[in-house]
Inverse folding.
């Protein structure tokens, strides 16, 4: 079975509770699930959250909307993913994070197709090893066997908190591949980490959702060309966020869970 596992929790230093902040009347997490349902390849969508009291609203949202969910470790996200995949018997896993409300089901299927077509030659495929897609359309695909090996062998806290670094950083153990876009859009920031990001995403939804429902990457690009002021809202965050990530990696700290 092919399953998308969406890691989601309420904790965020810069934008607390962002996964349940509403745009066009729905929480961001609900939009993510709605968009993933448009994938032609995914057979199940699972929200992986924690037993922390602050994350109870995520569980309630899943129950209200009949979304499969798993409750696991707050800090050991690798274990959370492994146990979720094991419970739901997933043999191919698509990793999605809840700060990507513009996730594109066509992009998901493209990365997934590449992985499935090369299943005997690959353990992991992604579009993030070399960025050519907008930040916020992040997709990682791996087999259950790969996840289980990482779960068994990864020991340091950074690898446990971020699920896939152990896979990506051990080429002697895992066969990894990157899928590139036909043009470099890596300078576009569509993830939600700061209030400016949320404002940008809110305006995208307000301009496109009522007309198209689940809109795609090209729809957003056309909108930003027509209304460049929307893209400018969070443009200055790119450098600041890259510095934050680089510093966290050097110090072995968590960036997002």
């Amino acid at each position: 079975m092919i399953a998308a596992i969406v890691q989601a929790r309420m904790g965020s230093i810069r934008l607390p509770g962002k996964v349940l902040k509403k745009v066009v009347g729905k929480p961001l997490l609900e939009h993510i699930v709605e968009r993933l349902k448009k994938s032609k390849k995914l057979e199940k969508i699972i929200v992986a959250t924690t037993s922390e009291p602050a994350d109870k609203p995520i569980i309630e949202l899943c129950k209200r909307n009949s979304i499969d969910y798993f409750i696991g470790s707050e800090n050991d996200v690798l274990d959370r993913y492994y146990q979720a995949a094991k419970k739901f018997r997933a043999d191919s896993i698509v990793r999605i994070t809840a700060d990507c409300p513009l996730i594109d089901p066509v992009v998901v299927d493209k990365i997934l197709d590449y992985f499935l077509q090369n299943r005997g030659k690959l353990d992991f495929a992604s579009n993030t090893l070399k960025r050519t897609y907008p930040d916020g359309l992040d997709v990682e695909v791996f087999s259950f066997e790969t996840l289980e090996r990482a779960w068994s062998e990864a020991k340091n806290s950074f690898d446990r908190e971020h699920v896939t670094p152990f896979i990506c950083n051990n080429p002697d153990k895992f066969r990894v591949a990157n899928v590139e876009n036909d043009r470099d859009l890596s300078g576009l920031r569509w993830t939600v980490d700061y209030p400016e990001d949320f404002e940008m995403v809110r305006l995208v939804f307000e301009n496109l959702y009522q007309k198209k429902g689940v809109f795609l990457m090209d729809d957003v690009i056309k909108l930003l060309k027509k209304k460049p002021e929307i893209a400018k809202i969070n443009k200055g965050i790119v450098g600041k966020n890259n510095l934050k990530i680089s510093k966290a990696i050097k110090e072995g700290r968590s960036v997002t869970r």
